């Protein structure tokens, strides 16, 4: 495992182009595009204000930089550095900006969710979509880029509009059986749209592309409901994480629950492996070394850690949520299927230090990673069943079916990993600190040979 | 005489009644017995009767005869001699003998009665105790009952209050639910109202913003871009919308087709698996049952038929409609399952039979284990016995040593009252047995002593008689010889029942001592050595016995005790003779 040198970044804005060739980072006003393999700067663009959002177009030719405070969007072309495009939303404001899947349109959501403006870079044409709903995930493009599902709110009722992305033709518009729609998500094959209600009611609805209601699922009533929903990449399973600290998995044929994964505080499942991160402070060095270290400004205060396999049963540290606060810190808030749909990683909010990995094939708990501090972010390798996670310290943690490893990021000045993302090839990881980033290269088989 | 006896016994009874308080030395008991025996032998010679003198012999005879008559005995004691003062010796002696017999009988009955009385007393005491205990228990239980009644009453009260509470709570809940419902409706209403307002505001805002927005484009772009796929953009018209619909349905159809294909594939896979499973099952199951040939053959036939059928059906199913295929599949699976179940049941039966056979065999086999088990149990029994023995010893010790508060407390702690009672009962039984033994031993002792005495007396008598005979060869000599010979015979007769009587007499004293003394040791040490000694002297027991006895008692007080007893006995003997004398006085 190798690490690159550290680069500056701001607002954790750092994206790899969809084709995997370029790395775009934002540093205050500037947008820097580098070659991923050499990390040499290819282009450098200067925006009008501090960039608050940045996104690659699907063809990896353009980069969108949004400045929400100014209501501005600037688009840069990689092939034609002279080409420029500036979209000004003016006084109506801007809260969100994104590319359409074709890379020729930009969808801007105005303040107060008054409307969604669709700007065409082909014709300079502008179209508006009214009544978008302000919710957890009110807008989603299908994986193939053909359709856009948009949650709307009119007359105190929830509607969904399905647009054809090609020409923004409204394909379907239907009312949903929700009290307060919280989110929607296309299945990876683009045939089914999962819609869930707000946390006040456990309700998941499944709509076909043509607006037919395929199924409704509700696990319980009178309690806080769905927290998050995630499709498996194979579209076979729909995982629903809820406030009752359980994950329920629905199948794609009957849309009934096949299994439910619980997150007990005491793990006594003998089939599961519990990895516990154990910290070890390095031996106190002598004075000379200490001086040396201080001058070097190195990792004196960094502790080493390793994983130990715990004897069952294991008690996972619990944090009791405050019952009189809104959005209690309890329940499964993050769900992620591995790229091969074989594993599911979950995080229960009142067990912030633990990541649970479930085997979807065996429908059982595979492993639990108990960290010393709260887990910030985890992501599956897009190519292999490999999970990377970070906890806001200077270490990177990796889990694979073979085992678990903790790696110290050897950057100077205490690089604290706040977030991470995989390169689409699965060969490298981009680690984001507060103001820095660095690349972590996995050892490929060729290198080993 | 009889009156005298009755007084004696009454005194004795008094003593018995005071058993629990008075300690009675065994020597005194001995003396008591000697009271009854000695006067008969001695008084006839040594004491001058005040009742009968030379002058009133005839009167006496008459009086005696009358008395005897009144007692219903033969009364021919008057001599037919003309002197009138003669005594017909034979009937007189007979009468005397009979009187003695009567006396002895009465004594026996008396003893028995006394014993009975004692027993009754003790049982009475026991009854009283049990009665008092039962009373206590009754009182306790009554109290318990009243307590329980009270608690029940309280509980019922509690239940009532709780029920009322429940009712109020239910009402409360109902009220709260109503409130919640009303609040919810109100909230939703408010929310809707607010949302409408917000929507209106949004509308207004957008209108304002849009209206104010000038016509100039907000997009500033160097040049327009072409499509990413290089195609030209299409006109937006009805054809386009239709094509969109078509596209959508196409994609939907594609999705369904893909899923159906996947399902069909899966189905085929599953069928294959089923087929394989079936084959393997047949393969596994059929060779394992060579015993049930006919049935198996049939079954196999059926199996193969089924297989063929299902095989055909599975081949067909791909062509046939899904519904039909499913039905057939389910049918075949059910059939298979039934077959498998019946087969497994059969196997189970066989297995159970085999097991029973095995068990039968097993019963023959484990002689060794059986023996081992027996040995183990024996050792366990032995252990238990030892344990019980140790416990008994401990108990004995505790009973022997005086009860101080501590031990009592300990006992209370250790045993329940009932157990203690039971043990006491057992102890009493044991004591009684012991007493019996002591009694017998005592009898022997007494008999031996008496024999010795009598022998001595006899010797003396003989010496006296010889002296008399030798010194005064008087015409009286004849008569004297008569008397002496009579006395001798009487003595010889008397010795036996006397022994019996004393045998009855002694245990009483003993029992009293045991009942009163918690520690029987000192009394035993006082009596036992003498008996042992006597046995030894009488050669009733061998020498070795004495040595073994020695372990029971301290050696020095033994001798002392013996001598003391002897001297005391002599003293008492005199006392009693005087006493009898007094009694006679009283009679006359």
UniProtKB/TrEMBL annotation, chain A:
What is one cellular component GO term in this UniProt entry?
Answer: MWP complex
Spell out the protein name for this chain: WD repeat containing, antisense to TP73
Family annotation (SMART domains): WD40
One Pfam annotation reads: WD40
Species name:
Kryptolebias marmoratus (Mangrove killifish)
A single GO BP term for this record reads: retina layer formation
InterPro entries membership: Centrosome-WD_assoc, Quino_amine_DH_bsu, WD40/YVTN_repeat-like_dom_sf, WD40_rpt
**Xref: SUPFAM superfamilies:** YVTN repeat-like/Quinoprotein amine dehydrogenase
UniProtKB/TrEMBL annotation, chain B:
GO CC terms: adherens junction; centriolar satellite; ciliary basal body
Give compartment(s).
Answer: Cell junction, Adherens junction; Cytoplasm, Cytoskeleton, Microtubule organizing center, Centrosome, Centriolar satellite
Name the UniProt key words of this record, in alphabetical order: Cell adhesion, Cell junction, Coiled coil, Cytoplasm, Cytoskeleton
> From start to end residue, where is composition biased (Acidic residues)?
297-306
Q: Which residues form a coiled coil?
A: 159-211, 330-387
Map out region (Disordered) in residue numbers.
289-321, 541-566
A biological process (GO) of this protein is: cell adhesion
Which family does this protein fall into?
Belongs to the ADIP family.
Q: What is this protein's name?
A: Synovial sarcoma, X breakpoint 2 interacting protein a
Q: Which lineage?
A: Eukaryota, Metazoa, Chordata, Craniata, Vertebrata
């Amino acid at each position: 495992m190798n690490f690159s040198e550290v680069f500056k970044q701001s607002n954790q804005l750092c994206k790899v182009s969809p084709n995997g060739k370029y790395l775009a980072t934002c540093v205050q006003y500037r947008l820097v595009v580098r070659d991923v393999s050499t990390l040499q700067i290819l282009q450098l663009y200067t925006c009008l204000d501090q960039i608050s959002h940045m996104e690659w177009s699907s063809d990896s030719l353009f980069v969108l930089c949004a400045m929400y405070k100014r209501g501005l969007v600037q688009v840069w072309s990689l092939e034609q550095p002279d080409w420029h495009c500036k979209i000004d939303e003016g006084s109506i404001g801007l809260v969100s900006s994104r590319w359409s899947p074709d890379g020729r349109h930009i969808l801007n959501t105005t303040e107060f969710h008054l409307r969604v403006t669709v700007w065409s870079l082909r014709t300079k044409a502008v179209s508006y979509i009214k009544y978008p709903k302000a919710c957890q995930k009110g807008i989603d493009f299908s994986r193939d880029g053909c359709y856009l599902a948009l949650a709307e709110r009119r007359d105190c009722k929830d509607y969904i509009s399905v647009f054809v992305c090609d020409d923004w033709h409204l394909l379907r518009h239907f009312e949903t059986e929700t009290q307060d729609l919280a989110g929607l998500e296309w299945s990876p094959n683009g045939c089914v749209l999962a819609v869930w209600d707000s946390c006040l009611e456990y309700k998941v609805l499944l709509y076909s592309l043509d607006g037919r209601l395929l199924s409704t699922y509700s696990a319980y009533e009178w309690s806080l409901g769905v927290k998050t929903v995630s499709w498996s990449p194979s579209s076979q399973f729909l995982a629903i994480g809820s406030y009752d600290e359980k994950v329920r998995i629905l199948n794609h044929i009957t849309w009934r629950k096949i299994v439910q994964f619980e997150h007990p505080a005491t793990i006594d499942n003998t089939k599961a492996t519990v990895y516990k991160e154990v910290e070890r402070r390095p031996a106190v060095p002598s004075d000379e070394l200490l001086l040396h270290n201080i001058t070097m400004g190195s990792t004196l205060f960094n502790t080493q850690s390793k994983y130990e396999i715990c004897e069952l049963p294991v008690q996972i540290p619990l944090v009791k949520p405050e019952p009189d606060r809104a959005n209690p810190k309890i329940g499964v808030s993050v769900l992620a299927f591995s790229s091969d749909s074989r594993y599911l990683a979950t995080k229960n909010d009142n067990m912030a230090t633990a990541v649970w990995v479930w085997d979807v094939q065996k429908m059982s708990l595979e492993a639990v990673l108990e960290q010393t501090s709260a887990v910030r972010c985890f992501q599956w390798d897009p190519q292999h069943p490999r999970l990377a996670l970070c906890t806001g310290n200077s270490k990177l943690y990796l889990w694979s079916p073979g085992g678990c490893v903790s790696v110290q990021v050897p950057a100077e000045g205490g690089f604290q990993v706040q977030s991470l993302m995989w390169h689409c090839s699965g060969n490298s990881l981009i680690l984001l600190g507060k103001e820095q980033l660095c690349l972590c290269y996995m050892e490929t088989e060729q290198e080993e040979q | 005489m009889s009156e005298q006896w009755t007084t004696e016994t009454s005194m004795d009874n008094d003593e018995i009644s005071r058993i629990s308080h008075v300690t009675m030395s065994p020597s005194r008991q001995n003396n008591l017995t000697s009271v009854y025996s000695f006067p008969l032998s001695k008084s006839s010679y040594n004491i001058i009767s005040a009742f009968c003198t030379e002058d009133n012999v005839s009167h006496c005879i008459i009086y005696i005869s009358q008395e005897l008559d009144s007692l219903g005995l033969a009364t021919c004691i008057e001599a037919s001699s003309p002197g009138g003062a003669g005594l017909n010796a034979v009937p007189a002696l007979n009468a005397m003998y009979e009187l003695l017999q009567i006396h002895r009988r009465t004594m026996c009955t008396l003893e028995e009665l006394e014993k009975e009385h004692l027993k009754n007393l003790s049982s009475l005491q026991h009854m009283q105790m049990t009665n008092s205990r039962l009373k206590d228990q009754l009182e306790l239980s009554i109290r318990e009952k009243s307590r329980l009644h009270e608690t029940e009453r309280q509980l019922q009260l509690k239940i009532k209050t709780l029920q009322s509470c429940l009712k109020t709570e239910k009402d409360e809940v109902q009220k709260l639910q109503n409130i919640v419902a009303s609040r919810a409706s109100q909230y939703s209403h408010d929310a809707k109202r607010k949302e409408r307002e917000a929507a209106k505001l949004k509308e207004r805002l957008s209108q304002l913003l849009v209206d104010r927005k000038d016509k100039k484009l907000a997009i500033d772009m160097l040049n327009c871009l072409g499509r990413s796929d290089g195609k030209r953009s299409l006109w937006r018209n009805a054809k386009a919308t239709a094509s969109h619909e078509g596209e959508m349905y196409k994609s939907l159809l594609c999705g369904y087709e893909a899923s159906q294909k996947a399902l069909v594939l899966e189905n085929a896979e599953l069928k294959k698996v089923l087929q394989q499973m079936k084959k393997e099952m047949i393969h596994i199951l059929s060779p394992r049952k060579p015993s049930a040939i006919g049935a198996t053959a049939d079954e196999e036939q059926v199996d193969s038929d089924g297989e063929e059928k299902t095989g055909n059906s599975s081949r067909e199913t791909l062509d046939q409609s899904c519904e039909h295929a499913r039905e057939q599949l389910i049918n075949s699976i059910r059939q298979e399952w039934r077959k498998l179940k019946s087969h497994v049941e059969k196997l189970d039966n066989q297995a159970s039979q085999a097991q029973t056979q095995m068990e039968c065999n097993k019963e023959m086999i484990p002689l060794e284990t059986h023996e081992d088990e027996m040995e183990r149990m024996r050792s366990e029994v032995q252990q238990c016995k030892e344990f019980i023995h140790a416990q008994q010893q401990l108990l004995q010790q505790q009973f022997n040593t005086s009860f101080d508060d501590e031990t009592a407390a300990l006992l209370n702690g250790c045993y329940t009252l009932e157990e203690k009672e039971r043990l006491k009962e057992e102890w009493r039984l044991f004591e009684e047995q012991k007493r019996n033994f002591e009694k017998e031993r005592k009898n022997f002792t007494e008999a031996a002593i008496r024999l010795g005495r009598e022998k001595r007396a006899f010797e003396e008598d003989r010496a006296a008689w010889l002296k008399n005979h030798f010194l005064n060869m008087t015409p009286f000599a004849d008569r004297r010889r008569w008397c002496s010979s009579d006395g001798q015979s009487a003595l010889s007769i008397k010795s036996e029942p006397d022994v019996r009587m004393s045998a009855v007499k002694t245990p009483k004293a003993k029992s009293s001592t045991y009942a009163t003394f918690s520690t029987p040791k000192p009394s035993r040490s006082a009596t036992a050595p003498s008996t042992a000694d006597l046995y030894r002297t009488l050669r009733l027991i061998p020498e070795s016995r004495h040595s073994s006895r020695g372990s029971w008692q301290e050696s020095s007080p033994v001798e002392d005790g013996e001598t003391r007893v002897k001297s005391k006995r002599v003293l008492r003997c005199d006392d009693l003779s005087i006493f009898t004398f007094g009694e006679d006085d009283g009679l006359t």
